[in-house]
Amino acid sequence: MSGKPEFLSGDDNDKEVEKSKYGVQEASDDPEYAGEQTTSIIEGHTKHDQHDMWRMGKIQELRRNYRALSAFCFASVLTAVWEFLLFANTQGLIDGGLAGLFWSYVWTFIGFSFVILSLAEMASMAPTSGGQYHWVSEFAPPKYQKFLSYVTGWMSVLSWQAGNASGSFLTGTIIQALIGLNNPDYDPKNWQGTLFVFAMVLILFICNVWGAHLWPKLQNGLMVLHIFGLLAVIIVLWVKAPHQSAKNVFTGFTNEGGWNSIGLSLMVGQITGIYSLVGSDATAHMAEEVEDAGRYVPISIFWSYIGNGIMAIIFLITYLFAISSVDDALNDPSGYPFIYVFRTALPNSGVNALTIIVLVIVIAANISFNASTARQTFAFARDKGLPFSKWISHVNSNSQIPVNSVALTCIFTILLSLINIGSNVAFNAIISLQIVALMMTYACSISCVLYRRIIHPELLPSARWSLGKWGILVNSIGLAFVTFSFFWSFWPNTIPVDAESFNWSVVLSKARFCSQNGFLRFGSTPMIWARAYTLKSSFTPQAEFTKTYTPSSRYHNQVLAPHDVDLVDDTIYALSTAPGRAGIAIVRISGPSCLDVYRSLCPGKAIPKPRHASLRSLYDPSTTRQNILDSDALVLYFPTPNTVTGEDVLELHIHGGPATVKAVISAIPKCASQFPIRYAEPGEFTRRAFQNNRLDLAQVEALSDTLSAETEQQRRAAVRGNSGRLGRTYEEWREQLLYARGELEALIDFSEDQHFDESPAELLTSVASQVKIMLKSIEAHELASHRGELLKKGIRISLLGPPNAGKSSLLNQIVGREASIVSQEAGTTRDIVEVSLDVRGYLCSFADTAGLRTQNDGKSTPHTTIGHVEQEGIRRAKAKAGESDVVVALASVEPSLDQSGWSIWYDLETLSIAANAAESIIVINKTDNVSAETLSRLTEDFKASVSDIAPIRDIPIVAISCKSAQSRTTPALNDLGNINHFLDALVMTFQSMTSLPPDLKDLLGVTQRQRELLEACSGHLLDFMDEAQISNDEDSECDIVVAAEHLRAAANCLSRITGRGEASDVEEVLGVVFEK
Prior knowledge:
- By secondary structure, this protein is α/β, with parallel strands linked by helices.
- Helix content is 56%, strand content 8%.
- A hairpin with a 6-residue loop joins strand 12 (886-895) and strand 13 (902-905).
- Residues 1-36 are annotated as: Disordered.
- Keywords: GTP-binding, Membrane, Nucleotide-binding, Transmembrane, Transmembrane helix, Transport, tRNA processing.
């Protein structure tokens, strides 16, 4: 079964998503999206997104159009805090006055920041459009998981739908207020306000369906308008409006609501601040459309809240100073205090202009709010939490937008606005649910993550934007503030209460809760939440599945200890620098006895400050400060856990004389300690780093390559492999296969007594879509491995050509010494002469071979009889060329057969071998025999004569003269003989053989061992794909047990790469790798 939560399993077993509709797309080539993280094969879908969606059991259906900046601007414009404070501040002025509105906003902004921090972290843990209800399902106790998640989902849907309606209604009423301002005889009617809502809904639908792909690109411009709109308002009000005194603004509390005290009035009036700040989590519901959502969604949520909050404080101070009379503002005919304030500063035309600027921003916020609401509704329907879920969660295959969900959201707003025609009170009662319901979702999700953080912190999913050690404190304060705000959300604006002033949210919340509970109990069948989130999430499964899927036995990474556990308590030491005479030697000590060693070698001296070098004299621990081992040693202490081995580490930098080194090393095991102190085994420091998760096995192998690197390109490849990215990638693949295998085995174990929403064939198809993506990635790693091996083991180059063409002379010029015997006698080289050297950073192995010539062939080389010894040399030369990575085919400028001029002599078989080689270069030697013009003519004749015989058209041709090169006197200043030009051509060939795109360069660190295991893993995955293909054949039935076994074998191959997991021979692998 899939890892999606399911609310209404019923009898409808149709798949929620047709995976084939959303075929795999190639990654974008746009440089804006380039970089290490955008290495996924789905557009805008990074490897982190892919992993998050897999873990949460979701399929990527929506296009990720939002990047980091556009997501931040989206969040900022949507919440539009200062704009909504401007339009909706009536309750704050009634209950609290000028000072009450200001200070209640300030404490709300501070208190709500802890809520935002908590939501942002959860958005990083599980970046899904579902938001709060999904987070509850991940973090709630298993016993209450289904109920709490379901209730939270309904609360979230209805609160966002109510908020969407209130935004459109607010826009319509402000337009009516502007009409009344310009036409005093205008009498606003409810039905007219409803028509304005209809117009607003039409704009929302058009922008969020046909303009959806353009909307992310407009966010930056809307952000500019959001900022400059604020500047326009505050400049006008500071310059033109009459001003209150600072005393009235900051200390002038009033109570116009009829409450018993100013304090109680302030508590009721704080709803203005709360209303302006809610909805900051909107970007979380757009998470499946944000690139690298686990990182940028929480950043957008938090920093947009901070930026908007500060802008709102600046605005609020300006606005409150500009209210010359609170009573007049509250009694303004328009019904909006801000229009009164604008009228005191500007004529009607100015009021219109300033209001329209703000209104445009609010309309943009409504469009974004509608998009976020539709995504939240889509997500809840995708998990079958709503009636008609299949229709609501449908995603248009062309636009990749949940059009039905957008339409439903618009229809819901229209239906609510119709209520306004009959009763304004009823309409306001319904939309009053927004704050109450949203506060309930905040409280439920934060309390669940706090529970998980306290009870089972080890099971929290990793977050790339984490609260760390402050998590419990931040969550606790956030939960307390949400509870506080929730309580005051039910209070009416004023007393005594009538039907219009009554806060109907308390009645409607109770009614909604009862209806949800009834729908949950009577409208759904038992669900399989435990398996769904045990396999895709990180919390403890319910009891009925614990026996099979306990995290400790299957889903937590197992690090296989390479030695007996008792040896972990040993303290080890070794000489870390090369043995022999040197200016300095470093002795490294690792283990629990590091400080004991220090106290014995440096008696009476204070422990050095961590990671700071301290000058010390080292003494023999068997004597009492009588025998000085080294008088000027540097000692460095590195406390656990952030050390090279993950243990306490002590480094002794001593003089490098052999006697001093021997004395210090001999003294270390004499130090007093409760733990054994012994000399380290080969590779044991690295082994401990692996055991303590300081290095993964791919980094260990890269470390070996780094230590053995002899050329610049070897060093670069080794450094790439040492980044840790390879190990993380392979571990993610292994975990994905374990999750998929767990799903299949759950179906095997419980298919008889549990209801599943997918058949075995559908499940295999679902898993196969993920395996297909993995196979493409493995293919890229295998290709990169071949290229990396060329850098590590060296590029093999064969010099091939007819006798006396200059092969040996060219080799000697490259090497810089006489590596091969050179003479005028044809066939001097009978066997292969091989030389390895560094050519501009590339390790190369050159092979000088016997001259090739074809007996009785008068077209290219003179007629010659070939002896048996020379034939054997030619056979070996051809075999060597077949093994080589690059073939250099030589020809030479020689007198023509009739001695009438010059021609280029060549061997046809040599050229044929070069043409069929993977990489090759043609070199024409002895160019010193002719002028440049003659050489050019001869080269063209050569190309023409062999073009029909050997396809050499694309092979580079380089003209050289080994004779001229031998006579050069200043090699650094000239290139006589053109040898450097030949080397340039050779290096360009090397670069084309070993280059990778920038985002794949880390793959150069893939080793041959890893490649062989990846090939084996790929084979098992292809076997799985064959089994999955059988499931699509109506005449055949797939064997799900065999399919699960293929996944197990593939995961075991990855276990052998990472050194973690269940593979039976991982221990043997570790031993081989560490001893290197």
